[in-house]
Every structure is written in C-alpha cells, then in structure tokens.
Write a structure and sequence with these properties.
Layout: H1 14-21, H2 25-32, H3 40-53, H4 59-66, E1 71-76, H5 80-83, H6 87-102, E2 106-111, H7 116-125, E3 132-136, H8 143-151, E4 155-158, E5 174-178, H9 180-193, E6 199-203, H10 211-222, E7 232-234, H11 239-252, E8 258-261, H12 264-276, E9 286-291, H13 294-297, E10 305-308, H14 311-327, E11 349-352, E12 355-357
Parallel strand pairs: 1-2, 1-3, 3-4, 4-5, 5-11, 6-7, 6-8, 8-9, 9-10
Antiparallel strand pairs: 10-12
Helix pairs in contact: 1-2, 1-3, 6-14, 9-10, 11-12
C-alpha cells in the first residue's frame, strides 16, 4: 500500500492581509475588531482582501486584545423540555441567534429549572465566558436579576421583569416586550363587536412575567363593568392548561358565548374542550387567542383568530439592544444616544406593536 503525503497548505496570516491591502497590521486588526478609527474605504478594502484570501482571525488572540468572547448567555427560567416544544420560544430563540450571528456572536443557552441551577449559572456568568445575557421567563423577585446587577454584566430582559412587593426597581434594566395589554384590548373589543355578551378569559399564570398580568388587564379594560371573577380562569400557557381552563369555565358558566385565551397554545386546548363538549365555534362560542403562532393558528379547527406579535423580531431586538449596551451602555439599538427611557428607573425598553388577525374562530 502506498501512502501519499498531504501537501501542506499555508493559512493566510494577518501580515498577508496587510501586505495585499496596502495598510499596516494594526489597521487590519482594527478592522477585524470593528473599531471606529478606520476610514470606510479602507475597511471595505481590507474586508475584500480577507474574503479573497480566506483569512480567519485567531479568536484567542482577538479575545486577548478586545476582552470580548463574542458569546451571549440566553438564560431561560423554563423546563428544557417545554422550551423546545413551545413554538413561541422556538421563534424567540431563532430571532436571537440570527441577530447575534450577524455580529459574529453566538448564543449559549442556559436553563434554570432547579434551585441548584442558580449557583451554576451565576458561576458561569461571572467566569468571563460571555459578554452579556438575555433573560426571559423569570419569576417575580427572581434573584438572578440581582446576580446580574452584582456582576455588572450587560443584560436585557425578555418581557418586563416582575419584582416582589417592596423590592426597589433596579436602575438601567432594559427589556423587550410585546404590547400585551393593547393586544388583549383588540381581542376583547373584537368579541364585543360580534355582539358577544358573556366573555370569559383563560389567563396566564400569576408567577409569569408581566405578559399574563397585562393581557388580563387588557381584557378588563374593555369590559368596563366589574368582571365576574368566575369568568376568569388561570392556566399555565400549555395546551393542556388551556383545555382544563376551558373546562372549568364551562362548568361554572355554561352560557358563556366567547373566550379570550391568553396564548395560541392554550387556545388550541380550549378549542379541543369546546369540541368535546359539543359547542360549535364560532356559532356557540367565539374564540380569540394571542401570539399568532401560525403553526398553531392556521391548523386548528376552525383556524384561530388571534393577536399577532412579531416574536422573531422581538428576539432580534433583544440581541440588538444587548449588543448596543455592551458597546456603549448609553446607546440605543440603532447606535444613537439612548433617550427611550425618559430617565425612568426601568431603563431603555422596546415595545413591539400588536394587531388582530381574523380567521374563522371569531
């Protein structure tokens, strides 16, 4: 058997890029590290040479210079199995990953399921492994927010974080959220416009971020008369939770003629219960969901009328806002001085608008 020796192909170096670009090595380094002190035409020329040569920067050396890891922790206070079966989180994570990739960064996914996870996650975040953190689904008074503050790590929250009663609002907290209250108002106003008079709701859980509270508040905004407590049922943002919540409402109020369900996943369960109880949708009971997860809303029977929010864009905005805070804590996501917080203690925030999408369920 004859063995052929592989020819050694020399990898292009920083010196090669500098020589072919006609600039110094330090200029090439500044271009690679994204520094602002280089003319636009020089940046374009260096990047073109990098592409032509197939030059790959040495990440270890780059990190020594920039003190950046180009990694972002995405911390989810959710069971791992739920995160990967709920389309909402799939879209959110897709938006985060895609935006980070545009900036040469990657997401490191961390889960908070057990009490011991806090120590593990805190040690990781404080170990210099990431440049910042995106956090979502935190519970009221979650101590991870305090850990983030103590570490001085740039962070963005998905949803407006809840605090325990009496807790001070931490200055500078940034968050991205949908217009939950306004979207809920759109849903219930639509049901009222259809002539529905006995409108119930399957709301989100008490311990969720403010989305659940805001959607319930939007429901109550429209029904100006005091809402009968028995027309409100809490559930856990799962399909089974929606099915059980709908069953409980029907047991208490068999005459209800409409229901606003605070998530599409719960609404799919609610539709199943209505079908099993012999209720026609929308003839007997009109149903409106929230999120506009097309993998659910377009495939239910009947297709679901729901409130649309751009979940993938929310993920992108979280990543964009975090990257802006890493580069300059007082800058907005578009690179301009940030004045979005109006000096409020909540810090900069982005609220994504919502709209009603009408299908056959209402």
């Amino acid at each position: 058997m004859v063995l052929t020796q592989r020819s050694h192909v020399r990898r292009p170096t920083l010196e090669d890029v500098a020589r072919q670009s006609g600039v110094s090595k330090s200029t090439v380094s500044r271009v690679i590290n994204g520094e602002a002190r280089v003319r636009a035409e020089v940046v374009d020329r260096v990047r073109q040479v990098i592409s032509e040569l197939g030059y790959v920067p040495n990440q270890g050396a780059r990190q020594l210079v920039t003190h950046r890891t180009d990694a972002v922790a995405v911390v989810a206070a959710q069971p791992e199995n739920r995160l990967f079966i709920d389309p909402f989180f799939d879209l959110l994570l897709r938006g985060i990953r895609r935006e980070l990739a545009l900036h040469g960064a990657q997401a490191v996914l961390l889960f908070l399921e057990e009490p011991d996870d806090y120590t593990r996650v805190a040690d990781y975040l404080g170990g210099g492994h990431v440049d910042g953190a995106i956090l979502f689904s935190l519970r009221p008074g979650d101590r991870l927010a305090e850990i983030i503050d103590r570490l001085g790590l740039p962070a963005v929250f998905g949803g407006r974080p809840l605090l325990r009663d009496g807790d001070p609002v931490r200055p500078g907290q940034a968050h991205v959220d949908g217009d939950n209250r306004g979207g809920a108002r759109l849903a219930v106003q639509h049901l009222v416009s259809l002539g529905r008079r006995r409108i119930a709701t399957v709301a989100g859980p008490y311990d969720q971020e403010n989305s659940a509270a805001d959607r319930l508040a939007g429901y109550r905004d429209v029904l100006r008369d005091p809402v009968t407590p028995h027309l409100v049922e809490r559930a856990d943002y799962t399909r089974q939770g929606g099915a059980d919540g709908m069953a409980a409402l029907l047991d208490r109020h068999p005459d209800l003629d409409a229901v606003f369900v605070a998530s599409d996943l719960m609404a799919s369960g609610a539709l199943q219960t209505l079908r099993e109880r012999g209720r026609r949708v929308p003839e007997d009971v009109a149903v409106v969901g929230f999120d506009d997860l097309t993998s659910i809303a377009e495939t239910t029977d009947p297709p679901l009328t729901t409130v649309h929010q751009d979940i993938e864009e929310m993920g992108r905005l979280m990543a964009r806002l975090l990257l802006a805070r890493e580069d300059a804590p007082d800058m907005s996501p578009d690179g301009r001085p940030d004045d979005s917080s109006d000096g409020s203690p909540d810090g900069p925030s982005v609220i994504v608008p919502t709209r009603l999408v009408r299908r056959a369920s209402a």
